[in-house]
Amino acid sequence: MKYTALVGKIGALSKRFLTREDFAQIVSKGNVNEIASFLREKEAYSLFIPKSDDVHRRELEASLYRRFFSEIENLKKFLTYPEKKVAEHILLRCEIETLKKILRLLHVGESAEERFFPCGDPFKDIKASSVEEFVSALKGREYYNHLSSALFHYKETGYLNQMENALDFWYFTKLHKLLRRVGSKAVLLFLKKQIDLMNALWIFRSRILFKLSPETSLNMIIPLGLHLRRDVLSKLSEANSQEDFLNLMDRTPYRGVFATAREGRSEYLLERAMEKYLYRQAKKLLRSSGDGFAMLAGYIHVLEYEIKDLVTAIETVRYKLDVEEAERYFIRGGINA
Fold first, then answer.
1. Whose CB among 19, 91, 170, 189 lies 3.0–4.6 Å from 146's, allowing a Cys bridge?
2. Is 274 exposed, middle or buried (0-12, 13-18, 19+ CB in 10 A)?
3. Buried/exposed code over 195-226 (b: 16+ C-beta within 10 A; e: otherwise)
4. Is 122 helix (H, G, I), strand (E, B) or coil?
5. What is the pLDDT of residue 267?
6. pLDDT exceeds 60 at position 337
7. CA dihedral 152, 175, 85, 140 (to 10 degrees)
8. What is the overall mean pLDDT for the chain?
């Protein structure tokens, strides 16, 4: 079996996942500082949580993702080519997500401190006062052409979504290419399902929320999915309401994935339904004891969903939300499941 040592390492790391009891304690805290203090006592997070009595919510969230990328960096040491190239590409997500945040801040005319970014600010040498200036300064980076093409649509519509999708298009297209070299059918299958649901969510946002044309909705899909081929995505792009969209999705192999989204009109519920499905798929990968690389892919995704649930818990405490209502937004099954 390839990567025997990696299998053992992931087995040990998986024991550090937070429990439902941990989440129950977190949502019972009075404020963000109390959550930070609680996580500081957890071995998995202790090195990353700021040692301060006054932790900003964004700083705490950045520290959680700092742990995520640090974990990938450490696990990369167990890999050889071509799997190591995949891990290196995944680490670029930190730069991509930081770039998205900076674009959003420039869009609304705000700035952010470096401590709010999980991998610092890889763009701190760029001086720009607008989205257009910032994108121009990125010339020469691997994803520049995709981003500059989307800039034209941003100038026309004022929506950043197409620029964010352009970055995702570059990231996932290259990831797909790298995974094909690895040859792990299980991981490639997971990625294709992820792309299917990302495409569906993009069409929902562009058509139902932003009322963009079907042509524009289809313009930024990633043509590498599993079940949602161009003809299916084309039909989804013609949906005029959430109900129409969900009815069309129910005719696909993803029938029932978005069932909980029928309970309300929240885009966030739709995204959470997608992530709950992918979480279950990631758990299957994590149990692939005969395939160390598949286990790694499963572990990375399960860890990311834990962090997303932590962000939800932080928001629940910060905004004094009803815990039973917040249950709907936890990816891993809530705190009382």
1. 170
2. buried
3. bbbbbbbbbbbbbbeeebebebbbbbbbebbb
4. coil
5. 73
6. no
7. -10
8. 92
The closest of 86, 117, 114, 113 to 100, measured between CA atoms, is 117
Distance separating alpha carbons of residues 203 and 236, to the nearest angstrom: 7
Backbone dihedral angles phi then psi of residue 302, each to the nearest 5 degrees: -60, -40
DSSP code string of 131-150: HHHHHHTTTTSTTHHHHHHH
Q: Where are the domains of the chain?
A: 4-329
The predicted model gives 140-145 an average pLDDT of 96
Q: Are 166 and 220 in contact (CB under 8 A)?
A: yes
DSSP 240-256: -SHHHHHHHHTTSTTTT
Spatial CA neighbour of 203 closest among 150, 267, 265, 277: 267
What predicted TM-score, i.e. pTM, was given to this entire model?
A: 0.94
CA distance 160 to 147: 11
Q: List Cβ neighbours of 21 (8 Å cut-off, separation of 6 or more).
A: none
User: CA dist 98 to 46, 92, 113, 167, 259, Å?
Assistant: 23, 10, 12, 11, 32
| pLDDT tens for each residue of 200-240 | 999 998 898 888 899 989 988 999 999 999 999 999 999 99
Percentage of the chain beyond pLDDT 90 is 76
Burial pattern 239-267, b for ≥16 Cβ within 10 A else e, equals beebeebbebbeebebeebbeebeeeeee
Token pair in block for residue 283: 């758990």
* Residue 126 · residue 120 · CB < 8 Å: no
Phi-psi region at 333: left, alpha or beta (left = phi > 0; alpha = psi -120 to 50): left
- Give 3-state DSSP helix, strand, coil % of the chain, rounded to 5: 65, 0, 35
Q: In the 8-state DSSP scheme, what is residue 120?
A: B
Nearest CA to 206 out of 165, 170, 172 is that of 165
- The b-or-e profile of 98-128 (16+ CB within 10 A means b, else e) is bbebbbeebeeeeeeeeebbbbebebeeeee
